[in-house]
Amino acid sequence: SYPIDVEAIRADFPILNRQVGGDPETPGEGADDDTPLYYLDNAATSQTPDQVVDTISEYYRGYNANVHRGIHQLSQEASVAYEEAHDTVADFIGADGREEIVFTKNTTEAENLVAYAWGLNELGPGDSVVLSEMEHHASLVTWQQIAKKTGAEVRYIRVDDEGYLDMDHAAELIDDSTKLVSVVHISNTLGTVNPVADLADMAHDHDAYIFVDGAQSAPTHPVDVKAIDADFFAFSGHKMCGPTGIGALYGKEAILEEMEPYLYGGDMIRRVTYEDSTWEDLPWKFEAGTPSIAQGIAFAAAVEYVDDIGMANVRAHEELLAEYAYDRLTEFDEVTIYGPPGDDRGGLVAFNVDGVHAHDLSSIVNEHGVAIRAGDHCTQPLHDKLGIPASARASFYIYNTREEVDALVDAVDDALELFA
Ligand code: PMP
Predict the structure, then answer these.
(1) DSSP 164
(2) Under a CB-based contact definition with an 8 Å cutoff, are residues 366 and 36 in contact?
(3) Which of 155, 263, 361, 407 is buried most deeply by CB count within 10 Å?
(4) ipTM for this prediction
(5) Which fold has domain 6-48+309-419?
(6) 3-state secondary structure of 298
(7) Which atom of ligand 1 is least distant from the CA of 185?
(8) Residues near 219 by Cβ (< 8 Å), separated by ≥ 6?
(9) What pTM did the predictor assign?
(10) Tally of CB atoms within 10 A around 316
(11) In the CATH scheme, what is the code of domain 52-305?
(12) Ligand 1 residue neighbourhood (C-beta within 6 Å)
């Protein structure tokens, strides 16, 4: 049994019933497909339930129009749905309201928005930005490059041998020169759940801001940005049953109010003359041009979908599968798993099999219909630190079962035999 009704949930995702194995040159046709699909690549992107797909098609079939500036009926309907989507997302993470929710393309764009709109203006020589060694490239590359442009220093909180952040080291690094701490809430490689509220306290003790990368946490955990006391929090719709092309940046209203716009243009202005311009209210000041309207409305539908299941239940389910996968994969002497123990991690397991490159493993596993990821998972410096070029990663979501983990384990067994 499971903490959630997996069978009922699976019925909302017809893609899970398709078979694989045919020619990928004919996407979606599945002509020669004869192997059941086991989709274990959810940390990269999750599948999309009928409710969300229907929301997109209802929009295009029923009230497709540009938002904000129209008086006509369709534009009003689209505007109401698009604007209310911000309220739904705000509620989901405990924000005060739509003023604190900027829709972005994804987590990466949210990170860049703050880097360009705030970092470029506020950082300079003598300032430091504190990251962790387990940051995703979305924050690592962004702050590294903004630091180069501004003369600020980047510091990295050490990851210990078990895959946890060294909090004593964090306390040493975060000092009065620190203007921003940016940390990943749940590592997409190690599965570590970081103590972001403690890091927020450390940052605030030194009048620094904290940016929490919630790409892996918002989809799978109950998140309350006020309880964490995050100044910024970002996540992507496509990792939580939503469409691609939409994500959210949460920012405390007072901070967003002070920040310069990131992109200039239509929809973000109040009054423009040939000489100067003034800005629209939050959050529209940060949403220049025609936004991703259908995606924004469908993002809210995705939030409602996972919220209906209950985020504590979603967490319990992925915790159960991560622990099961961890235990089953540890049965192989040849398998090395990265990160904390099976009973203390997010819903993913990154590993290597002795003598088999992660890419070879992933392609053998693919022949069994099992979809996992192989590579550096956008954490190249962390892979360097671990002394490995790549790893394989299985990641779980609401529709996954123990049987699917078993299919992975059987496929790994097969790979071991092939390479023996
Ligand atoms: N941060 C983390 C921890 C992630 O796992 C990801 C997605 N792999 C990102 C940031 C970037 O998300 P996106 O590609 O949607 O911008």
Answers:
(1) -
(2) no
(3) 361
(4) 0.99
(5) Aspartate Aminotransferase, domain 1 (3.90.1150)
(6) helix
(7) 3
(8) 46, 235, 239, 240, 241, 306, 314, 397
(9) 0.98
(10) 13
(11) 3.40.640.10
(12) 43, 106-108, 136, 138, 184, 188, 213, 215-216, 236, 247, 378
